[in-house]
Records
---
Amino acid sequence: MKRASVILAIAALLLVAPVLQGFSQVHVASAQDPIKLVFWNYWDGTNGEKIQELVDRYNEEHPEVEIENVFVGWGELLPKLQLAVAGGDAPDLAAADMVWMPALANSGALVPLNAFIEASGTDTSDFYPALLSVNTYDDQIYGLPVSTNNLELFINTDLFEAAGLDASAPPATWDELAAAAAQCADPDSGVVGMELYTQPGEGLTWQFQVYLWGAGGDFLSEDLTQAAFNSEAGLQALNFWLSLIDSGAYTLSDWGLFGQGQACMVLDGSWMVGGMAESAPFNWTTAAMPAPADGQPATNMGGEHAFIMAQDEAKQQAAWDFINWLTSTDVQIEWDEATAFMPVRDSVATNEAYMSWINENEPRLLPFVDMQQYAHNRPPVEQYSELSDVFSAMIERALYGQMDPQEALDAAEAAVNSLLS
Amino acid sequence: MTAMARVRAGWQHANRRGDVSAAAMALAPAVILFAIFNIYPLLYSGYLSVMEWDGFSPDKSYVGLDNYRALVESATFRNALGVTLQYTLSVAVLGVAASLVIAVLLNSGVCGQNIYRLVYFLPVVTSTVAAAVVWRYLMTPGTGYADVLLRDLGITPPNPTWLRNPTWALRIVMLVGIWKRIGFNIVIYLAGLQNIPKEFYEAATVDGAGTWARFRHITIPLISPITLLLVIMSIIDSFLIFDVVYVMTDGGPIGTTEVVGLLLYREAFRYFNLGTASAMGWVIFAIVFAVTMVQWKFFGAREASL
């Protein structure tokens, strides 16, 4: 029996050993050791390959740091970040969706960058103000934009031709868009004319905002304290979606029809251009997203912003040096050419080499570059994710005919205002 | 020797001098891990449920029962509870009933019993997320196999189609839930059925009882402890449904598949309301606990009277 107890004790110890080992791994850094940084981001595919290549090159050129590039999926990044912060195991720096920046900046987990920016003499006025504004909280900058994108019209030229439409003269107004969509739709084979994002959540909201802005409306009031979408423009946008459903130009279905060759047109992001150029089994082109005849051109911008979470000051400095390098004009041009992201700085957008590269290699990116000047950003409020969900839930009810359009906008306004109060 | 007597004898044997400490040692790792990974989080979430916390910042503020009050007043939460209840009851009742029927059929000496067992059991060991992705694909209009097959059989999909349809989405999710569990239920039932002495059926047959009468008066009563176990397990598991819904419908359309698990996930990891999310967790816990207790009492009393 004695022996059994000893064996058991050893077994128990073996079980607990890895945990104890974790505690004892307090590493004493010596002077020669490079500073190790962990960098989280969700870039995958071509973008993932490019960021890995850039990190590798940076590591090679800077032997004093060693950055580990870690991919974390878009859906997991925020929850994982939250758990890591709670567990005291946060990455040193990360790049994440611009929509999350207000919540992240407000969390106290990010390091303000103002002192670093000043010390390294970085000219932040070269970044587009709309992009920078989501990182600014209490006059402190908490992140820098690394990439951006916007939404424009994609056209399946095969389906267009089959329906007797000419993709080289794309629709220029909502009326033309609706007419082309109705003509191109083919319910028998499940082809829709214009694909809409109708599942609740940010997908719906950020598409709908393009229509809302196009009609001259706004999502929140200028001071970000209340809803502004319950307006004539909001009603016009919602009625336009409903008219697409009523005319058979769109049938409620899961997002993704365009990629399957089952939609003539779709409003989608510049990030689709690279992948589709490689693998779409049909011919396609792009055009600027139309607005109503009396409206204004508009699109929605997305993108990733880099920020620092490191506690240690040497690590903060090293992380800043990398971010400063990654967002510099030269690296940005290389990044944008490889990934088809839109420029985050004016000096990239006005760079002749970059523009002639686009003209030669992928002119289908031109509508996106041209329209970036009309890109709005989603309101930088902390509660944005929840706002977006409750808003889209009400719009969905209108699309399903459960509420009439005005009723849905009223309900969405009430829900959004109660979240903002 | 009955099972109880055997345990008692084993205990008396173990109780001899110092062996209790060996038993304690053997149990310690499991108990410690259970305490760290189950008990502690449970208590901590109880603490969080009376706080307001965004999950990041070091300061949490005490809000008393506000989080619970907000839940009671929230129409979204009530809807989610309703949907979860509907899902749970359907999966528990239909899933257990169907698996009993299949188990009895399998037990009646169908040839290739093992192959059937494998076929029914495969979903149990399949990753739920992977299975849900496949099911979602199967139901895709125009290209999904299930959708195409149904069209070939002359069943035109409703408009909007399956997973975007307010009446169909939850039914399909339930079907996947039942499909996922049924193999487990069948295996447990088969074990139970094989424990029913053949003589009972032989005697009943001699007395002139038909197939239905034998099933009704021998199989069902003798198998009822297993039924109780399976129903309780189904209810507990189904009440915590999250992954299937998250992958297949994300709660849509118009909230018809929005279960509490999904709402909890959103509150915690999308809106950063850890307090509200913890309160939801405790409401679920309380409901599951109460339901289990009631079932235990009800079935337990019935079993004692048998």
---
Amino acid sequence: MNPIVNGIPISFILGLAGILFSIGVLGVLIRRNIVIIFMSVELILNSVNLVFVTFSKALSHISGETVVFFVMAIAAAEAAVGLALVIAIFRHKKSTNVDELQSMRW
Amino acid sequence: MLEIFPLVVFLPLVGFLFNGFLKGRIPHRMAGAIGTLAVFIPFLITLGAFNEFRPMERTAPHLVPVFDWIVVGSFKSSFGYQIDQLSLYMTLIITGIGSLIHLYSMGYMKGNTSYNRFFAYLNLFIFCMLNLVLSDNLVLTFLGWEGVGLSSYLLIGFDYDKSSAAEAGMKAFILNRIGDVGFILGTGFLFWFGGSLQYLELQTNLSGLGEFSNYANIVALFFFIAAMGKSAQIPLYVWLPDAMAGPTPVSALIHAATMVTAGIFLIARLNFVFLLAPETSLFIACIGATTALFAATIGTLQNDIKKILAYSTVSQLGFMFLAMGSMSYVAGLFHLMTHAFFKALLFLGAGSVIHALHHEQNIKHMGGLFGKIKITSFTFLLGTLAIAGFFPFSGFFSKDLILEKAYTYGAYGTILWTMGIVAAFFTSFYMFRLVFVVFFGKDNTDSHHKVHESPWTMTFPLVILAIGAAIVGFLQTPHFFLHIDTLERYFAPVLSKGYELASLKGSLAEHKSLVRDVELSLAAFSVGIATIGLILAYFLYQRKQNPIVEEHTGFRKILFHKYYIDEIYDLVLVRPFLFVSKGIAFFFDIKILDRFFLNIGLSFGFIANGLRRLQSGFIGDYALYVVIGTFCILVYLLTRGV
């Protein structure tokens, strides 16, 4: 395995992906605006994509990049459905604050 | 008549169903007539069959298969009836005396609101009893056996709104169940050994089995335990005196003439087993003699007219078992019949007295009735002479035959005979005590009501039974007097096969022969003993010279309280049982079992209650759970090393 990718050590890229992932998770956990939460989810997916691409390059193997395309396709579909839901909820509740959306509990 | 013989069993069933289902819709007179006819017509049919069967010449039984009942593999049980000397004899007694008692009940029960129900029960009883005696296999006999137990329960507890009657019914039922375990076990063993439950097949199969004689004692003992319950022998006798809570005709029919003799019948029917079991037979004889003596002593101090007769019945049944145990089945069956006559007569006579005195049962409140109710008095006196064993009434011949057979029975014959003769003395004593107090002594009756003789429906059966009690003894007389052995020849076909099986030589069943003079002196001795009983009763209760009559101290107190047997049973069996049951019901069940299972349920509820707090509805919370979960899985995988 080649520890250097395009002149950058692999640990740097993995560290960036970890930071991006953490920011994403933190955003999902602490933000109230549902659109921001969506963006944070995208951030998580992108960090994973970054890891996949990095290892694909380092191992000189195509399968990692293939998975990335799948992830991107699914992320696009998810965003389409998710945003449609967000609009529907907003029309109903006049709010995008997730704390006000708790009518589905027991 | 043999072709329509199943009607004998069928008609009482029809009577039961008719009266049972239409009990509210038909008049009393009609219910009584139907109930009586449902027993009387079978009696006529049986008489016809008896003639046609020619019992003195025929040796093979006549089998009447009706239908197959249970067929499983080699096990087969059917509704089939066996007509032979023994079953015809029993059927004649049951239907004959039964129809007289039905007729009597029509008068006795008049005015009772549950008149029709009473007749329905009586017919059910007759139906079950006939199944018991006529069946050709053990299973059907057991059906009848349980059936009479049920009917007895229903009839004892007939006045079910009185708690004493309801309790007496239950007592009879439960004590009988204890005995019936023996019946079931015995039946199982016989099927195991003999491969069949039909009496005839068993008889032939067992004769081929040499080793059966090793087990015969156990099988016989089981059947005797069953007989103990039904026929009220020590230690299961306590239900019979209590059973007097039922109406008097019931006492006469069930507790004197028919059901209680089922044990005797069972032994006679299975004589081929009992003959192979000399040790058990000796045991039966001992129990019989003890019961005869024991119950007779209790009878001497009781004050309830029906209780005296009840203890007398227990005592007489003891005599019958003494005969069965000493392997002289003819003597036992003979006494069964004479006892059916005179005890039914005595019970019905007592019922007539009770009826005349408006349901007074305490003999202390009676007296001087002789002459006021003539037919009842004379017939009762005749019954007393018969039961006390005075020559030439029926009781003399049958009791004397038993005592004679006991005397010649094996090594312990003399002891058994002594116990029997003492019991006979007490019999004479308590019966004449009853007669003197009720019919001759000072008039203690409540004079508000006029004493009246009973209607003809009640006196007619009394007269017929009195004639029977006087003359049926002549069916079998000792050698020194006429030397009639009709009964012995009559029963020979039923019993001889068993005797062949046992091959009497050297066994206990072989009776020593008796010299004519000894026989005569034995008979004279028993009559003498009965006379002494009479005289003693006369001096103690008619002349009233002795103050001990009214005082109950020392042993007399124990006697008066029936040896405290009921109290002992209560203390030793009933109370510990109740204590344990209550412990289980109110401590173990509620405090331990219920608590255990309830708490399992409650704990799930508790856990769920805690878990539901996790479901807050906030998306952020759920996301946090996902993160924490993922983190935990990761930590686990890392520490375990993938």
---
Amino acid sequence: MHIPDAFIPLPQAAVYWIIALVFLALAIRWARSELNEDKIPLIAVLAAGIFALQSFNLPVSMGTSGHLVGGALAAIVLGSPFAAVFILTLVLIIQGFIFGDGGITVMGANILNMGVIGGFVGYYTFQGLLKVVKNPYLSSAVAAWLACLIPALACAVEMSIAGTFPLVPGLVAMGIYHAIIGVIEGVVTAVIIYVLAMARPDLVDTSVGVASV
Amino acid sequence: MIDNKTFIIAGLLISLLIGMVAVFLASGDPDGLESTALVVSGQKELTGLSPEEGDPEVIGTGSYTYESPMPDYSLGEEMGSTGGIIAIVVGTIITMLIVMGASYAIRLSKNSQ
């Protein structure tokens, strides 16, 4: 769901940049207080993995494809939605400037959708569900599904404000595609969280680590 | 429990593997957003096949564009899969180094206060 430059007029793109920069500043504040010698390898490996997963366009039939976003993954593993903002912003900057994936003027909108909305939806869905179902893998799978679907819907709304897509067909198409892509995102996120909790239980957020004890 | 160095190497190798598999297995159909653009511009049905010549970006032609060093994760048609692999490997390693660099920089800035 990387928005190309042409899809949003510049004044609107500027508004999304301002919102994104506010969250980025908060994410840097999070990084200053949370990052330590042990967490830096985790955050670097997560970023490399998210870059690779985003380059993998999975066929979902219906003449479309989707890649994983990774916002929920970053937020759940590191125990903060700002982790997703931090990692996704850097990944999106690299994708935009080096690979032409997602525009530069609209990067604020892409950071808002995938980093901020994806991270917050993913993190709070996970925390809320975990209290109810007590299973971190089921919770993370559902959280990742929503963290794929909601940003896609936000993207459709932004497109309609921009006048690029009509609202309803945009919501229907983005919603259907990402409801399906989200299932794959959910499964892959749960598997990765399981593997990380096994490999380095000391690094993952304690609410994830519950299951590995 | 594995140590930090092993963790980084294993994580990077797995990421590179996913990226390289992607070069060969990734779908050639457009991403959800571009596919939606084709739907709303009437070039494709919601559940139909993507037209080979469909160009979703035609929606916003004429506005701002820029050149990137490795557009669409490739080094151009003539380099084919090899170019794709180089692009993905470079991107994965750059991502890891930049995120690691930024993290250390933030940590240093905190310690120096």
---
Amino acid sequence: MDALADFGPWVEALLQGIWLTVLVTAVSAACALVVAFVLGLMAGAPGRLPRTLSRIVVEFFRGTSLFVQLYWLYFVLPQLGYRLDAFAIAVLAFAMNFGAYGSEVVRGAVNAVPKPQREATIALNMTPYQRMRLVILPQAVVGMIPPFGNLLIQLLKSTPLVFTITLVDVMAVTKSYRDSEGNTFFIFTLALGIYFVLAYLTTLLMSALERRAKARIGQPAPPRRGLLSWTAGVQGEVR
Amino acid sequence: MIWNWEYAADILPVLLEHFVRYSLVATLLGSVLAAVLGLVFAIVRYVRVPVLAPLTTGFIEFVRSTPLLVQLFFLFYVLPGFGITMSPLVTGVLALGVHYACYYAEVYRAGIDGVPKGQWEATTALSIPARYTWQNIVLPQALRRVLPALGNYAVSMFKETPFLALITVPELVQTASSLGSRNFRYIEPFTIAGLIFLLASYPTALALRKMENRLGQ
């Protein structure tokens, strides 16, 4: 119980660390979502140029390791004369990397919309923009939610990396507590617990989103998950 | 002068050597550990071994919901406190192997589920012992099907080997980083490191995708 007594002054630091972890995750996820849609819709475009371009960007960011991308931005950009703060670099790296993975989700979900739906929009003489916005996307989005949920958890699990580029997240607070107080077992177990709870909350959020999205287009809702069966949704197959 | 070819040529052999000796070795050993341990997890859950099966499920869910980096640090800093000291590379391989075993277990489960029910029924009808059923009937069919998925995870693991840099394993990124700080030029080492990752992982991923398509037919 010594560990708990020592821990008092650290509570505030840890709360701020949790806040930063959540912030990095949320901002990166929002940016990654935009990147995923842009790249994913480009991949399904009729023209050859956008398709090729999207392919190159996606394969580049999927192939070169998130770690190297983050370090490249952090160490190389200043030498090229660009200065970004660490938060912006983290968001940029995560957004491009997870956006590249997410674009495959978008492409797959758009392709999975039944063909007659597409044919009907052509028969009704809709413009390509109307087709996407009114018919294809509202249906495709529902299918995207579970894989996006998996990606979001992957993203959350990648955020401890940001401590290496000087951001003070849960990992950074954990390490500095360990270095100054020396109670390794306690603090690392606590850190694992915090990430576990954050991942759990993310799963709950995504399954609530899925239920709502399904209800809106009149599909039967998935069964509500019990407290212990929640992990049925954590798959992580996307990588 | 943005890109210095001479410097790039100087550091390339060092980077390649560390890449092969640490990054590749960690990926290979980690994959083998994950493949074996994952299969054990999958079978324990599939045959519902009492006590062990729910424990395994809990363990898998916990490991999959927490970051690899924190697990790595946990092993690296906590184990010595319990009197277990291992070299950084071994600790890294252990962390990668156990982390990915939890993903592999799910892949195996999907593969085992994919074996037609009739096969199980036939073994029961012919009163073939359980051990023989697994070894000669179920696993050979399941493994063939899950190979591409296992390969994909191996590629992900490969791209996560830089985590080992943070526990002082001199793998590719750690080497790039120390070369960069020694010469105060980061452009070449990190760019080359990225290219090495791309050249190693992209063709593998392509081959796996092709294999997946062929098996899917």
